[in-house]
Amino acid sequence: xxxxLDGMYVGGxxxxxxxxxxxxxxxxxxxWANIPDAGVAETRAAIEAxxxxxxxxxxxxxxxxxxxxxxxxxxxxxxxxxxxxxxxAEGGGWFGKGMFETGYxxxxxxxxxAANYGSIGEVLPSEHNKLSLAIRRPMGVISVISPWNFxxxxxxxxxxxxxxxxxxxxxxxxxxxxxxGGILFAEIFEEAGLPEGVFNVVTCSRDNVAAxxxxxxxxxxxxxxxxxxxxxxxxVVAAKAGAHLKKCxxxxxxxxxxxxxxxxxxxRATQAANFGAFMHQGQICMSVERVIVHEKVYDKFMEQFLxxxxxxxxxxxxxxxxxxxxxxNDRATDRLKAQFADARxxxxxxxxxxxxxxxxxxxxxxxxxxxxxxxxxxESFGPVCSVFKVRSDEEAIQLANxxxxxxxxxxxxxxxxxxxxxxxxxxxxxCHINCSPVNDEPHxxxxxxxxxxxxxxxxxxxxxxxxxxxxxxxxxxxxxxPPMF
Length: 485
Fold this sequence. Notes:
By secondary structure, the protein is α/β, with parallel strands linked by helices. It has 15 helices and 24 strands.
């Protein structure tokens, strides 16, 4: 039986639409919920509600905004079991993924609340004896467009820091996870007592997403955009925002590597590669797609790595025994089929996996992948990685950097100085020594280089991204004007 929803959330109330669209359980194809299908008119109403609510919200004392965030966090914690079930059913994640995602998201509430207690500017020196200040202030309406793969984390990270800073929000979650990524948060913040219009959620089908997305970017009342998703869409979002001179933070895809040096702890390296490549079916922007191993330890690494991969169980995410659930939809399956076929035709070999049964894909390890293959250049966003043998750190660095992306990386070595030397030559926004590339925390500066995005989410970096900096002075030195004036 499909979940019953009150609607989408606009101006402090629940709004229904003339039509709805189905929100599917990707494991069994059943309709999990029927979701309001908004168009431009509903989106514009949400933006106008946020704009009207902005002055009073921005003027509210910072600690009161933080207290509401903490109260919302308590409500989220109380509903955690229900939310984990939805991660399995609506999002196709296994039970462990649900526990991880809800645990991480619970930490974003206090991290955002705490961000209000840091510095909001600086006192600058003045050659004219002025009191010279650099002061941050909220921008206004912020549009947040979030993805389906980690809808709790990536929606919360996108809107909570701007919200607590005094901005108002219009959130559009993915059509694949509209409840987890949006409607759930509206329920929570309504119960927490957030003033009407401060936080709004607009849901729409894939058919309407282009028109709704354009309104969220181009409406003159919108002052900033937070987008997390594919690089192809992110380029369009950033270009349209730039045309209107609007601030835009985009966190996009990745073609991430883990480099295994010849002195690495292979137990930890194989576990880091296995987790990094296959957690949530590889549907993470930080997922490991290239496993780059020094030739001196390549054979030993593979002897330990492949058995780990083969132990991963695949099936319906409702069963806690399954570590891997389905990929999110049939489009994802079609993409993986095309990449697998292209790699095989051009000479790559599958060492394990390669089976696709509906939306269920066995964890797959390729070798012999070369630059002319789709698997080398495209982000797979599925449970697949390619293993490469290299002769030196320099070759490993060159291979890791040979991509348009630059999100994250991992380096496994017993020598931290060597690891830092490698890190300093990698073109990635994030890098982790002796850990998987799949790493994030609410208070850190997270973002990519190159085609992986621009701007930073997390902690004070989110506060800086979604506030404006003003220069304010008070004349105290009696600065004289030229006598002719």
